[in-house]
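As a representative case, we now present a protein record of this kind.
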Amino acid sequence: MPDPKSITVAHSPDADDAFMFHALANHKIDTGWLTINHELCDIETLNQRAKRNELEVTAVSFHAYPYIADKYVITRAGASMGDRYGPVVVSKEPINPAELRGKKVAVPGPLTSATLAMRLYNDDVELVNLDFNKVQDAVLDGSVDAGVIIHEGQVTYNDLKLFKVVDLGEWWYTKYELPLPLGCNVARRDLGEEVIAQFSKCFSASIKYALEHREEALDYALTYGRGLDRGRADKFVGMYVNDYTIDIGDRGMESARLLLKLGRERGFITSNAEPEWI
């Protein structure tokens, strides 16, 4: 057996991530010789910290991966894929999608996949980078014409009387018949294959445990639900913890490669690094 090893895993404080990590965070499964600690940050902060090589294992946006590919490899488990749904562009008043041109649109950070998807959908807009939890307020107060909302906002924007302009995951599926790649988990290469393999095994087991003990894992996820009631937390978790999360699979990998290829071709991504899974 390898020597005991402790690593820190960073992820966002969202209901879906909490659901996935419940079994690890609450010691429901045996991790063997690997001790797994947790650190919580919003996704754009994680993207930027991974660029600085600060994190051992972390959730990041697929959009960010080309910029960290020399230091990190993607785990097959833990992908967030929007299968016919995804980040939603919303507005205060009804807007036809064609009317977005020239408008000011808030996005949740330059390296988020939501921002890349927005640019691929329509780059003839003025992007305003904001913290993800400030996008809806910016739309409501009129400082922007529209905003791209992620996380729980995708199931709560109706409460604020906001209007859907376009669902970017729906658009992506209509165009490419693939799920929209949003987030993934990466491990720093210098951890070594043995540690990365052990983490991946434990993480997969944690996701499977959550799906097999849904109510228990949902109880934990609700503590990170940012105002979601149980029904909507369950809906949100169901959107982003699915078969692709257990293993991204060939379709998931195909879509991730396509997203990054299109980003490079349009000049939105300046790194030529390809995604690599372990």
Remarks:
- Residues 193-212 form the longest helix (20 residues).
